């Protein structure tokens, strides 16, 4: 009698299992990236809770926004664990479930806390939530990298291995989550307390956890890799991969292109809400507009820009960011107001777009890195990349606080903000000069000659 496992393997060889495994992969990854994009929903509530509830100043808000990324810096460790150790015979799914569980506990704990919760306590809860989010992101990114490699002679039938296709799918899922999160956040912030919004997101994470634990990795048809290879071996393979010039030069440029830009997000949030009196619903619409642009970017990239030189595309995005930041300088100086453009209209059309434009280059860059990753350490390399990004964002936030302090920008005095924005725009343009560090295209591997 033929076992069910043998029949499943035969079905996969005949291609009958491809459709089912493709659907399960899209369910798991689509839900994961959708929830990841929806994280803007509770974080919008966090910003208003800190500003109106705990009465923190712009610098303190920005320090929290940056320091909350600290768990993201340890992503290589999570990646090595994910690459090295199987849990109950599964490589990635248990880590996704564990991360979703940590996040649910974190946000529900904030909901259950008293309204006068201390700044220190809420910071700890947010760090715990971001720890869970980083574990989920590492496992999801590793799966995308594994499935996103160019097809080889041994995997001709893999539907999702065409360059950039799966990356575009999860990018779109994340963007849809961002659109829904910002739209719902803009509406909910005026109707519910921040604590209720924390509970709503905790419930969503609980649903993700329950869905994940009922998906077995065998149904995903992931590429096979040696199990339980050990941390030491996995670390040595990660170090070997990072010693490749095309990998470490790219990661250094990518991280530096964020780290050298002084982030002024907290200051701009206070300028728009405190100084200009922009309503929360307008900010929500602005972020929805930005996330819609992010969604459109994923579609455009997948259809028209995958074949374009990554170096030229990423450099163009970097230069466009500088242009938009200079536009913020004109906005704060009142130039657009002189031409009859209302502040709320500018915030909707440009502020939300600039916020997501900051991350446009991640999509083409991760496509390049997925193609450069040596087999077996996709989780480690992609986690190292995201860790470098997290560290760069922390440095960027600290530079932004220092820049605001240098020009004496406070919650009530924004006279020095135009000068800070001008310096920010110049710093954004500088990395274009070193864009030669980015690979100018990945050549597909030639098939081995048959014996």
TrEMBL record:
Region (Disordered): 1-20
Superkingdom to which the source organism belongs: Eukaryota
Annotated Gene Ontology cellular component terms: membrane
One GO term of the biological process aspect: folate transmembrane transport
Classification via SUPFAM superfamilies: MFS general substrate transporter
Transmembrane feature ranges: 27-50, 93-112, 119-139, 169-189, 196-215, 247-270, 282-301, 313-332, 344-363, 383-407
Location relative to the cell: Membrane
Pfam families reported in the protein's UniProt record: BT1 (PF03092)
Listed GO MF terms: folic acid transmembrane transporter activity
Membrane topology label: Multi-pass membrane protein
Keywords in alphabetical order: Membrane, Transmembrane, Transmembrane helix, Transport
InterPro entries in alphabetical order: BT1, MFS_trans_sf
PANTHER family according to UniProt: FOLATE-BIOPTERIN TRANSPORTER 1, CHLOROPLASTIC, FOLATE-BIOPTERIN TRANSPORTER 7-RELATED
Family note: Belongs to the major facilitator superfamily. Folate-biopterin transporter (TC 2.A.71) family.
Protein name (record): Folate-biopterin transporter 7
The species this protein was found in: Capsicum annuum (Capsicum pepper)
